[in-house]
Amino acid sequence: MKKLKLKAEIRSPELQAKILRQDNKIPAIIYGNKFENKSITVDYGEFRKIFKEVSQHIPFLITIGEQEFSVLIKDYDVDPVKNTFVHIDFYIINEKIKTITVVPINFQGESEALKLGSLLTVVMPKIKVKCFPQDIPAQIDADISLLKENGDKIKIADLEQPKNVEFLIRNDAMVAKAELSRGGKMAQSNSEAEEETKTETEEKDSE
Fold this sequence. Notes:
By secondary structure, this protein is of the alpha+beta class. It has helices at residues 17-22, 44-54, 112-115, 182-206; strands at residues 5-10, 25-32, 35-43, 60-64, 67-78, 85-92, 99-108, 119-122, 126-131, 140-143, 153-155, 166-167, 174-179.
C-alpha cells in the first residue's frame, strides 16, 4: 500500500497562529528521536483528507522542502466551538524500529444475543499494539457472533491478531459484552420478582 503524503513548510516564529489559520494553514510541530524540533505549517484541507485516512495510528509521509519523513499524528488540538484543527504534533518514526500505537477495534458479524434484545456494550474501543510501522493494521476485528446470550463477553484473546503485531494488554481483558438495557433489566427484575411471588404463593397454598 502506497503511503499518503503531506506537504509542510517551515513556520516563521513571527507569524501568529491566528493569521495562519485565516490563511487556511494549521500550525504544527514535527519532532522525533535525535531530530531537532521544527515548527511547521500544513494546509488545512490536505491535512483533513489525510486525517480521515490515517487518524492517529497509520504512518504517512511529510515532506519539508527536499526532506521526507515517515510520521504518526502524535497529538492534535481542536477548537471546541468550531470543531476545527488548531494545532498538530507529528512524530517521526524509524521504519526499522518497532513502535507503539493505538488501533481501533472493528466489531463485525451478527450476534444472537443482540437479536434477542441485548445491547452491545463496548468496553474497549481501541487497543494498544506494538509492531514495525509497516505492520500497523488499520483496525483489529472482533467477531460479535461470540455473543450468543445476555452476559456473554468478548475478551482480548478472542480478537483476530494480525501477524507480527503484539497486543499490549492481557488476554483476559474484556473488550465488549452483551447486556440488557436499563428497561430490559427492570423488566427482567419485575419478571423474576413476579415468579418469586408466584412460587411463595404456591408454597403457602400447599401447606
